[in-house]
Amino acid sequence: MMFRSQIVGCGAYLPARIVTNDELAGRLDTSDEWIRQRTGIGERRIAADGELTSDLAFHAARQALERGGMSGNDLDLIVLATATPDETFPATAVKVQARLGMKRGAAFDVQAVCSGFIFALAVADNALRLGQARTALVIGAETFSRILDWQDRGTCVLFGDGAGALVLNAVADAGPTSRGILSTHLHSDGRQHDILYVDGGPSSTGMAGCLRMQGREVFRQAVQHLSGVVDEALAANGLSPADIDWLVPHQANTRIIDAVGRKLGLSADKTVVTIERHANTSAASIPLALEEAVTDGRIRPGHLVLMEALGGGLTWGASIARW
Ligand code: UT7
User: Fold this and answer.
1) 28 C-alpha vs ligand 1 centroid, how far in Å?
2) 214 CA distance to ligand 1 centroid (A)?
3) Which of 31, 108, 269, 312 is the least buried, fewest Cβ under 10 Å from its Cβ?
């Protein structure tokens, strides 16, 4: 029997504290105008002292499970995407597993930075398709505020903290019109390390380190690779851009989102954009945007949803789902 991963619940969590561009302009040589014009960001959420990635992930996961009418013990698998784990080990996913009261199955992390959610979705979807698991929770959760150089205006204004989650159920595959994940497409290019990385880690400096980015070069490669992987995902499913109901992109920069949308010929009102309030939450940005658009009624059952992301590595990927 062939299986397909159907999406049965979606959840999100944002820390309470809002940090506006103006607040940052009070302590850095930047301005609300520069940040909005160059990135589309207006404000970001920052986790409280002692509030960890696993806390954000747990709240998002619990909401996704509740909405799917499920509890932790119904799950076979948790795949959590993060570049900001609570600890070097164990995986943040097992902390979430324990808090959800899930006493069986397996939980682990996936590390693909801002593309992490697409990579985690691919891992979970493959497990469900193969019959290795029947129910999976996919989480993107980050506290990037902890790995920012708060003196570097070129990076610290860009990121925020948050988490989002999806619950997937394996169902019999009834062909291309059945609901669920249609395909996932993953890429990486390790030669591009130096344009986006963190200058620390357990095996190198023994400290967590700070994010370093050559923004202009990442921007250039993002538009190129995202356009390519979106074409790949459409072609793999025999779809054209006109078939897509919603583009749900990783939220790094409105200019990147617009450029990819333009190349696709998708009108801006078919794109879910949350960057103004969330900034770039790395692996959490796509599930946060999905949750918002599902909750406000934009994304409805049967809609075709195209997700895409690019991040450090470089890594990039896309997925198409029939909601
Ligand atoms: O999610 C992972 C993937 N990451 C991304 O996709 C990020 C991709 N890159 C970007 O989004 C953009 O490159 C940035 C938003 C990071 C930067 O925008 P940009 O248009 O590429 O600006 P730039 O780096 O070329 O800098 C332009 C100017 C520079 O000044 P000079 O050298 O022209 O005098 C910067 O020093 O803007 C200056 N600048 C700032 N000014 C005010 C840089 N950061 C700031 C700031 N406030 N926060």
Assistant:
1) 14
2) 8
3) 269
Task: Please determine, looking at this structure, whether the domain spanning 3-172 carries the CATH number 3.40.47.10.
Answer: yes
How far does the centroid of ligand 1 lie from the alpha carbon of residue 216, in Å?
7
- Report which protein residue has its CA nearest ligand 1's atom 25: 216
The token pair at 269 is 């009102």
> 237-263, pLDDT tens digit by residue?
999 999 999 999 999 999 999 999 999
Active site residue 114: yes
Query: For 36-68, what is each residue's pLDDT tens digit?
Result: 999 999 999 999 999 999 999 999 999 999 999
Residues 6 or more apart whose Cβ sits within 8 Å of residue 317: 112, 115, 118, 119, 122, 184, 185, 186, 187, 229, 308, 309
Q: Is 180-272+280-322 in the same CATH topology as 3-172?
A: yes
Other CB atoms within 10 A of residue 278 CB: 26
| Given 114, 210, 253, 278, the catalytic residue | 114
Helices (H), ranges, 31-170: 32-39, 53-67, 92-99, 116-129, 153-156
Q: Decide if 253 is catalytic.
A: no
CA dist 121 and 110 (Å) reads: 10
> Which residue in 156, 250, 253, 278 is the catalytic one?
250
Q: What is the pLDDT of residues 255-290, one digit of tens each?
A: 999 999 999 898 889 999 999 999 999 999 999 999
